[in-house]
Design goal:
By secondary structure, the chain is mostly helical. It has two helices and no strands. The radius of gyration is 21 Å and the shape is elongated.
């Protein structure tokens, strides 16, 4: 309990900027890999998205 006698409710943080940056890099790498496979192998993008 807090000093005022009420329970404190903490929201879950969204992570720090470094984690967000890493997540964006991973998504970008996936996107580029899918794009490259689509162009080279003529595989449907929808089926590549499931990989």
């Amino acid at each position: 309990m807090s000093l005022t006698g009420r329970k404190s409710i903490f929201k879950k943080g969204r992570g720090n900027r470094k984690e967000a940056s890493l997540s964006q890099i991973r998504l970008q790498q996936r996107y580029l890999a899918i794009q490259e496979l689509h162009q080279e192998e003529k595989i449907a993008i929808l089926s590549l998205g499931e990989i």
